[in-house]
């Protein structure tokens, strides 16, 4: 652990001395319990540049902001929400590791004024780290609205650290945080004001003495921190001292101290004793510094009466989900025709402007229609994302987890797994990451293994296209809902099977905070949507354009000039226009069949033949492993190139002519079940270190997908479709 | 003194004992459920498999098993 600049004044640390002309850097760790408004605070800081990345080595999103002020460059790192240093979930571990091991200058601890006493317990743990620290009490607007008041000076006096009252929502106090950062950075570290019961302090003193014998813990502050964490039964710290020469002495002493204290306080563990102490201190502080009128019935209470009503709760939840998919389809389809028309127009312009040849063809037949066929679905995707974000941000998602926990438990999952599962409808990549909130490794891996069955928004284009082609428009929204629901049900069944066969044992306990309902911040929603739209367009413009270029190339070459010539002469010899067209069509189809892609398709066709797929659909299915949107763009390219007959203009019409209804349903089933895109697969890879699970993950969805599709295809055949 | 699972919706009181083991105990504690905290039963699902309680402004959902390990002394609102 590093405590570099703590002892000296602020000019020490990373910047070295005499760096007056250069910009001085201050690195700040932003820590707090979940939902206290950390992200909102850094988002609303004036002049802050936001940078989104990952914490090193793990896929937890890391948001940082950079602010320049008075010759300082301040970097604030938004840590994942953490309830306590006795970290519980993998995500909390990330925050804890950062706090323990990284090099930073000070901690900003954000607390929620509504639940101040609970937040202060964590504040005390942070203060034990003995870094410079600022306490930010956020959501002050809510407390004031209820007629309450927080006494800032009193808190400062009692805690001995600067306190700022803020409301990120009303942009109050937020920019003052920056002034405090600079001030605290420049000042000496204040004297520690946090002392425990005498009997505990006595034992801390003993431990510190032994720790001082090691050259690592000469610093009294650091030794005190280690001693307290040892009493708090912190395994990470225990691991650090485990390898030191003083370990034997320390270990013996610890055993004795544990026993003595536990006897004296009549508690099961010294960790409980410290908890009780902090609890009592927090209560005492709140009594002095927080004025709170008696609790009235809040909006949340009233909404919860209805939304998690024992009987009405579930039907209401199902209605919301149904509504989400209905709106996704209905509203999303409005701008679709415009986008489609725009891209057709672009394609035609290119054809008119550029001379005939491969360049015109790759643009007008390859890239533009393919990219267009994918961008068409941007509205659908944005609506679905907006819906999922709304569920999350309003606090309803936690209610859904509450409602579904009993049900999920039957399938060997727990209620909290619902959150990654629903996020999976948006995108599988963040959903895999959201699975980190599950503590138990078995629960996590089961959840991740079935997550792929929650159809992500990239699969939406394929569904919308196929539904549009093969089902009546009046039922489109319902069919979409059925597809998503069947994916979810399949996921539950597979989870149950995995739980009984491979992961015996009970799912992890379910304990979860139910955050109050909040009106979502429009700005935050807008920013999320904007990021999503940008990423999607970028993906369409680069990855999908590239993939469709490859598909176009593979489908246009090699060029058999003898075949072309023989047809050309026959076409010229014919007078009948209809006959001419027919011959042209034949030529195009033959050329496509002889292309590289045709050869590849023919090779893999036998795998998909029992499902009624022709080689083009087979190729599109395989291409979908790169990204699901590619299925659509590939179909667009393959049916455009091979179709000189201009009778059927839209892709939809061409699909209707070439694919049977039962094969289309089989394709939907395949898309629903088989492996997700490369990005998702590599995320799974990064999150799951065990080779056995990685291998299993690569194989089983594809086998399952084929079997299910075959079943559906055969069944539909038997029913006479 | 009785476990939460034997109380009815609307029941209020004070926590007198938490029998859960760590790390669940620690988690309950950091959410504000500790010996001495005020507690109110807000809701449970139809089959009483999942419970919702409130303590000091924080609402917490827990499963039957965990709820059964928290014991309260009811003072009012109970049937
Ligand atoms: N009323 C009010 N709501 C806030 C305030 N700060 C944040 N929120 C809301 O609290 C919720 C959680 O905020 P967020 O920044 O995501 O919390 P984080 O988990 O700590 O990053 C969001 O719905 C915010 O809009 C505030 O000062 N006042
Ligand atoms: Mg956040």
Give me the secondary-structure topology.
The complex is a heterodimer of chains A (721) and B (79).
Chain A: E1 24-32, H1 38-43, E2 49-54, E3 61-69, E4 72-78, H2 90-101, E5 106-112, H3 116-128, E6 132-138, H4 140-145, E7 149-150, H5 152-159, E8 163-165, H6 174-186, H7 198-212, H8 220-231, H9 235-242, H10 247-265, H11 270-289, E9 290-291, H12 299-307, H13 313-332, H14 336-353, H15 358-375, H16 378-394, H17 396-410, H18 418-426, H19 428-434, H20 441-451, H21 460-470, H22 476-501, E10 511-514, H23 522-556, H24 561-573, H25 577-594, H26 596-608, H27 615-623, H28 629-641, H29 651-658, H30 661-673, H31 678-687, H32 691-718
Parallel strand pairs in A: 1-4, 1-5, 5-6, 6-8
Antiparallel strand pairs in A: 2-3, 3-4, 7-9
Helix pairs in contact in A: 3-11, 7-8, 7-10, 13-16, 13-22, 14-15, 15-23, 15-28, 16-18, 16-23, 18-19, 19-31, 20-22, 21-22, 21-29, 21-30, 23-28, 24-25, 26-27, 27-28, 30-32
Chain B: E1 2-3, E2 12-18, H1 24-30, E3 38-44, E4 50-55, E5 58-63, H2 64-67, E6 70-76
Antiparallel strand pairs in B: 1-6, 2-3, 2-6, 3-4, 4-5
Bound molecules: guanosine-5'-diphosphate and magnesium ion.
